[in-house]
Input
Amino acid sequence: PAELEEDLSSLLAQIRSDGGRVQVEMLELGGLASGMTQLGQQDRERMAQRVHASLRAASVRGGSAVEVAEERFVILAGGAPQPGDLGHTLEQLGAEFGVVLSAQQETVPLSEALTPDQTVRALKVALNIFTHEGVLNAAKTLREVIDSTAAKSRKICEIIKQDRFELLFQPIIDFALGGVHHYEALARLGGAVESPAESMRLAEELGIV
Output
């Protein structure tokens, strides 16, 4: 939702203004859904509360933890990364209730080369991979998406600042009127002759153009 994106962008801006750094913790808790169904209602509610409390405690300012899919969580964490700590804590929590959890956790630092708004847009693209593929399949790709997005962002900004692009005007025909209705401006970044669709899509997603 747009409001959530605005809140996240504002949060990132505040953390950076305070000199803080943020990383994304991707956590998959195998066995959570099936294990909780075997608990009584009271224990199920207690365990759910403690899991959510642990996630919030690990997140910056206690509120930036989201369940993006069943058993898959994303947490914005601050400070120095401590790989595996949260997963181990939750495995121990599950054991207290007789639920065997298998935690898989990956940490991805967020690039400071992107503005907060650009970071939020890049995360939307990257987290879609995590949602559908899980931690093991998505961790390497997620890092590459964030890194490549930062690199492409810098490249596109440089091209625009240096005026190394061309504008071509394509006529849009109104067949009812039998003539040109208007012209559509098409950009060729860096003098490229191939379709600029991918570069322009990325530039728009990152808020550069």
Q: What stands out?
A: The longest strand covers residues 179-189. The chain is about 50% helix and 25% strand. The chain has a mean pLDDT of 80. The first helix runs from residue 2 to 17.
